[in-house]
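User: Here's a structure from my thesis project, written as structure tokens. My advisor, Dr. K., wants to see whether a designed sequence matches the one we expressed. Can you design one independently, without my sequence as a hint?
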């Protein structure tokens, strides 16, 4: 290992490496050294503690002098000689000082598989409801702190209170693994959010079951078709006629729409499995018309850019039709219509891109996109008939085969 007498002059003469780091050790004070990187020169102390080589940064050259660093190194080495562990102590102090904001960024870096929409929601929710916690050390977030804030958020939205605290819980669980002392023990001994579970203090939030009912389809379709914003009009039609999720529709690109095969493909859906759907005749006409005047890569992108102000556009449809709905209600409407006309369960799961779950038999069934074309068309016919847009359409239920019947 390179050795030199560490002084102001010798440190100034040491050249920085182009990449990586170079280590130099003092030829007089054992354990005292200098770490040099392309951008800095840092004094260090290095020694064995409990049989392991440990290294502690003492300070950058320029912030402290070589003589100050030598004296500090001797002090640390003396502490170690008497059974102390300043390196573990420094690591613990550093870990205890980690703020919620720092832990959030560490968590997001670690979760490489997290979707952008989830990342955005996590950042926005945490900033809005616990933003004042961001500069605080994680160690300062207590059971009582969590319970009090959970209740406060719940006064406004019980669902958002639960979501926000689940985000906090995930970050702290990550921090318990990421930030440890020199012996690898978690600096944060327990997760304060867990007290909500122990006390059964989570809000009971019922799953939404709203949808566009059959008698509401006519006013809903009329209100949507009356929208001046063509992107919004066709976007809402796509959602209700395919059951796609909000972001799946917004992210749809023309390269994933095959007007020859009459299919569309969602490349990165919620379950990470690419999802190809057949287009019903009505939806084909909608997309074919859009394609003839396409202006960009995304299907729902107009002269002013990507589709914006969805809430405002939804409200216009609500005001005109009297039907209260969200984009996910349209997915729920699609699934309910499919079930009402006896589309087989496996086909419904395939149309919605749901996994087979615990049903072992479903795992052996591979449903080709062409086998979904008839149920997709039947769902469209049902909706258009109730909307008064296809009065002559004959709805033929797709019934499950009777046991023992010939197929």
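Assistant: Designed independently from the structure alone:
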């Amino acid at each position: 290992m390179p050795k030199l007498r560490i002084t102001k002059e010798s440190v100034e003469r040491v050249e920085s490496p182009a990449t990586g780091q170079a280590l130099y050790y003092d030829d007089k004070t054992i354990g005292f050294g200098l770490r040099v990187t392309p951008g800095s020169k840092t004094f260090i102390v290095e020694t064995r503690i409990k049989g392991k080589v440990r290294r502690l940064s003492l300070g950058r050259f320029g912030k402290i002098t070589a003589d100050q660093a030598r004296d500090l190194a001797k002090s640390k080495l003396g502490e170690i000689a008497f059974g102390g562990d300043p390196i573990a102590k420094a690591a613990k102090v550093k870990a205890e000082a980690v703020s919620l904001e720092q832990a959030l960024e560490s968590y997001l870096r670690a979760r490489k598989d997290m979707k952008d929409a989830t990342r955005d929601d996590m950042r926005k929710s945490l900033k809005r409801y616990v933003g004042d916690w961001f500069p605080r050390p994680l160690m300062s977030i207590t059971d009582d702190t969590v319970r009090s804030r959970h209740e406060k958020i719940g006064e406004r939205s019980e669902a958002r209170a639960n979501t926000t605290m689940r985000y906090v819980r995930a970050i702290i669980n990550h921090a318990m693994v990421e930030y440890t002392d020199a012996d690898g023990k978690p600096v944060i001994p327990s997760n304060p959010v867990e007290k909500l579970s122990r006390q059964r203090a989570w809000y009971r939030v019922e799953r939404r079951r709203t949808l566009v009912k059959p008698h509401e389809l006519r006013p809903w379709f009329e209100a949507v078709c009356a929208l001046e914003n063509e992107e919004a009009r066709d976007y809402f039609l796509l959602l209700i006629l395919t059951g796609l999720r909000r972001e799946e529709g917004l992210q749809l690109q023309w390269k994933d729409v095959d007007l020859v095969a009459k299919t569309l493909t969602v490349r990165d859906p919620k379950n990470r499995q690419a999802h190809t759907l057949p287009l019903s005749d009505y939806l084909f006409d909608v997309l074919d018309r859009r394609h003839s005047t396409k202006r960009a890569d995304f299907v729902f992108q107009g002269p002013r850019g990507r589709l914006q102000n969805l809430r405002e556009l939804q409200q216009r449809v609500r005001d005109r039709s009297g039907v209260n709905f969200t984009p996910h209600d349209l997915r729920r409407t699609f699934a309910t219509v499919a079930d009402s006309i006896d589309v087989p369960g496996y086909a419904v799961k395939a149309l919605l891109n749901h996994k087979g779950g615990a049903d072992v038999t479903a795992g052996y069934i591979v449903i080709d996109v062409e086998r979904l074309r008839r149920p997709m068309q039947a769902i469209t016919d049902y909706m258009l008939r109730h909307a008064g847009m296809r009065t002559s359409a004959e709805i033929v239920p797709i019934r499950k085969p009777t046991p023992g019947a010939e197929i």
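When you compare it with your expressed construct, this may help: DSSP finds 16 helices and ten strands in the chain.
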